[in-house]
Structures are given as structure tokens and as C-alpha cells.
Specification:
The chain is of the alpha+beta class. Among the domains are: about 90 residues, OB fold (Dihydrolipoamide Acetyltransferase, E2P) (Beta Barrel); about 80 residues, Nucleic acid-binding proteins (OB fold (Dihydrolipoamide Acetyltransferase, E2P)), CATH 2.40.50.140. Helix content is about 30%, strand content about 30%. The strands form 2 sheets. It has a 5-stranded mixed β-barrel with strand order 1-2-3-5-4. It is rod-shaped, with a radius of gyration of 42 Å. The termini are far apart. This is DUF5666 domain-containing protein. Keywords: Membrane, Transmembrane, Transmembrane helix.
């Protein structure tokens, strides 16, 4: 006698098919077109409709990919547009800053108008020149010309001009001497950046270094450059180490009689160390072994 066949309730049949389909889908992630046609035959779906459905779905997916790519491209273009705008603003701001050169006299056409007694010199900047407080008050060019600017314009000069830059200088030439020649600058143009520094009246008092900025110096080394005033008389010197030395008038007057390029200076003084080098004012001085008059 045959065993009775185990029957599945009609009520749970849909749930069985759904779960079976999910389990099968988990096991079989991809189907070939032939497999889909066979599955369709089980469901009594003609093969041509299966194939048409596959093509429509693929076309739909491709269209979605195109739309996503378009959105991505639009986003990229928007980002590039923003980046271009930012770069333009940055470059424009940089150019304006360079041309302004720290509130230079581009605001004042009268300040840079030519004068009959103006002269023009050109050259590459060898180094900054500083006053005894350590403020930049000029430039030394590689051709030996000494450019003089007011110390209250120190930051403007540093912002616009760097050592190594080629510059054009317009101003009043001082007397020429064996120690060099000074030019009192009215305008300094950076040939590369076109940044312009023009002489301006003093508007506010320059900051004076705090007393604890000063230290005692003792030096003993040769002179590399003598620096002069508008009369061609020695006012200071640059040593081989780059240290700048300032002399009081009695010492400077004596130096004009004995100084020569390469003279050995032994001195004591008070000064400062700055970002552009050391600077000091001499108290006692020997040149080539000879003691010069005291500053007292």
C-alpha cells in the first residue's frame, strides 16, 4: 500500500514560492539570457517578451548612467568654475597688492611725476641697507649704487623689493666719491613684478625697538662696502659677514681720511640682530690697528 503524498497547504504556497525565489536569487546573482527564457517558459512567458524586457531594462539603466554622468560633469564644471573664480580673485588681489606695494604712491600721480634734476639708475639688489635701529632705509645694488629711502617706508620696501630683484630707481644723485654714490630715491620699480615704491611723507612715527632688543657687539673683520651720504662722505659700512656698522660724525669724519676697501675694523658697539642681518652703532673704533677719536 502506497504512503499518502505529503501535501502543501494552498495558503502557504505563495510564501513558499517567494522565499524560494529569494533563496535562489541569493545563490544565483546573475542570469544568462537563455536562463531567463527558460525561467519565463516555466511561467508561460514567451521568449520574445523576455528578450524585449531585457533590452528595455538595459536601455533604462544606460539612460540612468548617462543622467548620472551629466550631473557629475555639471558638478565638475561648477567646481571648476568656482575654482577659476577663486584663482582669478587671488591672482587679481596679489597683482593689486604688488602694484600697490604697501600703500605706495600710485595713489598720488604728483608724487611720481618726473623732475628736472631726477636721474635714473638700474641694477640688481644685492642687499637691504638699515639704519642703526635696524629699519630698512635703503638698498645696495650690485653695481655699487646706494639707494636711500626714509626709514618709515621700511615695510613698503621689504614688501615690494627682495635681494636679487632687478630695479629701476628714479631720484636725486648725491656726490660721487671713491667710497660710492648715494641716490635719494623718489620711486623704485621692481622690473619683474612692476611693484612700485614711491616716496611718501611720514604719516606716523616709526616703531622704535624696545631697549631689550639691543645687545653689545664686538667686531673684528674687513670692510666689504663703505656707505656714503649725499655728499659722498662715509656714514657707515658693510663688513664681510654682512654686519652693518654705523659711525657717529666725529668717527666718520676721521674715516674719510684713512678708509680704504678691505680695511680691517675692530670695534665695540651696541646694536640689534634683525631678519636682514645685524646692525650696530660703534662706540670705540680701530681701523687697520689705528685708534680713531672717541665719539664723546
Amino acid at each position: 500500500m502506497n504512503k499518502p503524498e505529503h501535501r502543501i497547504s494552498r495558503e502557504i504556497a505563495p510564501e513558499v514560492f517567494q522565499l524560494a525565489a529569494e533563496l535562489y536569487a541569493q545563490k544565483q546573482q546573475e542570469y544568462s539570457l537563455q536562463e531567463l527564457i527558460l525561467i519565463g517558459e516555466e511561467a508561460q512567458i514567451p521568449a520574445e517578451f523576455i528578450q524585449q524586457a531585457v533590452e528595455l531594462i538595459k536601455a533604462k539603466q544606460k539612460n540612468q548612467e548617462i543622467q548620472i554622468n551629466k550631473k557629475t560633469n555639471r558638478f565638475k564644471l561648477a567646481v571648476l568654475g568656482v575654482a577659476a573664480t577663486v584663482i582669478t580673485l587671488i591672482v587679481g588681489g596679489w597683482a593689486y597688492k604688488q602694484l600697490s606695494a604697501g600703500n605706495s604712491s600710485l595713489k598720488s600721480p604728483v608724487a611720481i611725476s618726473p623732475r628736472e634734476n631726477d636721474s635714473k639708475v638700474s641694477g640688481n639688489v644685492e642687499r637691504y641697507l638699515m639704519n642703526k635701529e635696524g629699519l630698512v632705509d635703503g638698498l645696495l645694488l650690485s653695481n655699487g649704487k646706494q639707494i636711500k629711502v626714509p626709514p618709515h617706508m621700511s615695510q613698503q620696501v621689504v614688501n615690494a623689493i627682495k635681494p636679487g630683484d632687478a630695479v629701476d630707481v628714479v631720484g636725486k644723485l648725491g656726490s660721487s666719491s671713491v667710497y660710492g654714490q648715494q641716490i635719494e630715491a623718489r620711486t623704485i620699480m621692481n622690473n619683474a613684478t612692476k611693484a612700485l615704491v614711491a616716496k611718501q611723507p611720514k604719516q606716523k612715527k616709526a616703531k622704535i625697538p624696545k631697549p631689550n632688543d639691543f645687545i653689545n657687539f664686538t667686531i673684528n673683520e674687513p670692510v666689504r662696502h663703505w656707505l656714503v651720504n649725499d655728499k659722498g662722505e662715509i656714514r657707515s659700512a658693510i663688513l664681510t659677514s654682512g654686519t652693518q656698522v654705523h659711525f657717529a660724525k666725529p668717527l666718520a669724519k676721521s674715516l674719510n681720511k684713512v678708509a680704504k676697501t678691505g680695511s680691517q675694523i675692530k670695534a665695540e658697539g651696541v646694536g640689534r640682530k634683525t631678519a636682514h642681518g645685524s646692525v650696530l652703532e660703534v662706540i670705540t673704533l680701530q681701523i687697520d690697528g689705528n685708534l680713531l677719536p672717541s665719539t664723546n
